[in-house]
Amino acid sequence: MAQQLPSKTPAYVAIAAEIRGWIAGDELQPGDRLPNERDLVERFGVARMTVRHALDIVQLEGLIERRRGRGGGTYVRRLPPPVELSSATSLVAQLERQGWDVDARALRVEEQEPDSKARAALGLAAGEEVTAVTRLGVVAGMPLSVETVYLPVAIFPRAGELTLTGDMRDVLEDAYGVVAVSKEETLTAALPDDEAQRLLEVPRTLPLTRIERIARDSDERALSYSHGLFRSDVANIRVRTPTPKHLR
User: Fold this and answer.
1) Cβ count within 10 A of residue 159
2) How many angstroms separate the first and last alpha carbons of the chain?
3) Ordered per-residue pLDDT tens for the chain, 248 residues
4) Transmembrane stretches, by residue range (predicted)?
5) Where are the domains of the chain?
6) Who has the most CB within 10 Å: 59, 99, 142, 173?
7) Which fold has domain 11-76?
8) Superfamily designation of domain 83-238
9) What φ, ψ does residue 91 adopt, rounded to 5°?
10) 65 C-beta neighbours (distance < 10 Å), count
11) Judging by DSSP bridges, how do beta strands 236-238 and 82-84 pair with one another?
C-alpha cells in the first residue's frame, strides 16, 4: 500500500520533504544510495515525473547527487563546499585551494565582434573585437559551471594562444601585467539551455545560478565581461560584507 502524503501539499513537495527528512534524521548517510525511481513511485503511489521533480528539488538543495554509468543512481552527498563571490579569486580556483580536484576546460576560443550587451559592458566601439572563451568548470568529476569570458583584443592581443585553464585572473596578469582590482556581479536564476543542460548534466527544469561579471582595473577600465551558469548543488556561493568601521 502506498504511503499517504499530505492532501494539501503538492505531491512532489511532500516527497522532497520526506527525502530531506531521511537525510536529516540520519536514516541515510553521505554516500548512501536512495531507493531507485521505480521503488519511490511504488512507495508513494505517484507518477515517475512527480518523483523526478521531487529529486530535482533535493538535488538543487545540494543534498543528493545523481551518478551515471556503472554504480549509477541517486546518492546522499556531503554538503557542497563554500566559495566566496566577494573574493577576487575565481570560484574554481577557490575550490582548488580547498583541496578539491578541479578542472577548467576551454571548450571554445575565438576572436569575434561581441554582441551589443558585451560591447556595452566593455565600453567598446563598433568593430572592436574580443576573444570569447567558453570554459567548463568541473569539481571532483562533477560539472560546476559553464561560462563565457569576453576579453578585448586591444587589451589582450592573441589571448587565444594562452593556456586558458585555472584562474583566468592569474593567467592574464602573468601574460600581460594587467590586474583586475574590482568587479561588478549580477546574480539571477535561470534555466539551462540545451548546451548547458548537456554540459552540466542537469534536467531542463533545474534552476541554476546565472552570474554576470565585469572586471575592472585601478583606472575603472573594463578588462573583461563574462556570463555563466553555476550549479548550486556542487558549490555554495557566499557573499561576505565587511562591517563599516564606524559600526564596529
Assistant:
1) 24
2) 60
3) 668 787 788 999 999 999 999 988 878 888 899 999 999 999 999 999 999 999 998 987 878 888 877 778 899 987 778 888 877 777 878 888 888 888 888 999 999 999 999 999 999 999 999 999 999 999 888 899 999 999 999 999 999 898 887 788 888 899 999 999 999 999 999 999 999 999 998 888 888 999 999 999 999 999 999 999 999 878 878 887 777 666 66
4) none
5) 11-76, 83-238
6) 59
7) Arc Repressor Mutant, subunit A (1.10.10)
8) Chorismate lyase-like (3.40.1410.10)
9) -60, -45
10) 17
11) parallel
Which amino acid is located at 246 in the chain?
Answer: H
Between 11-24 and 37-44, two packed helices, what is the crossing angle to 10 degrees?
Answer: 110
224, three cell numbers = 573583461
Q: Which residue has the cell 551558469?
A: 229
Q: What is the pLDDT of residue 198?
A: 94
Q: Write down the pLDDT at residue 95.
A: 85
Distance of alpha carbon 210 from alpha carbon 205, whole angstroms? 15
3 state SS for the chain: CCCCCCCCCCHHHHHHHHHHHHHHCCCCCCCCECCCHHHHHHHHCCCHHHHHHHHHHHHHCCCEEEECCCCCEEEECCCCCEEECCCCCCHHHHHHHCCCCEEEEEEEEEEECCCHHHHHHHCCCCCCCEEEEEEEEEECCEEEEEEEEEEECCCCCCHHHCCCCCCHHHHHHHHHCCCCCEEEEEEEEECCCHHHHHHHCCCCCCCEEEEEEEEECCCCCEEEEEEEEECCCCCEEECCCCCCHHHC
Which amino acid, 93?
A
Q: Which amino acid is at 75?
A: Y
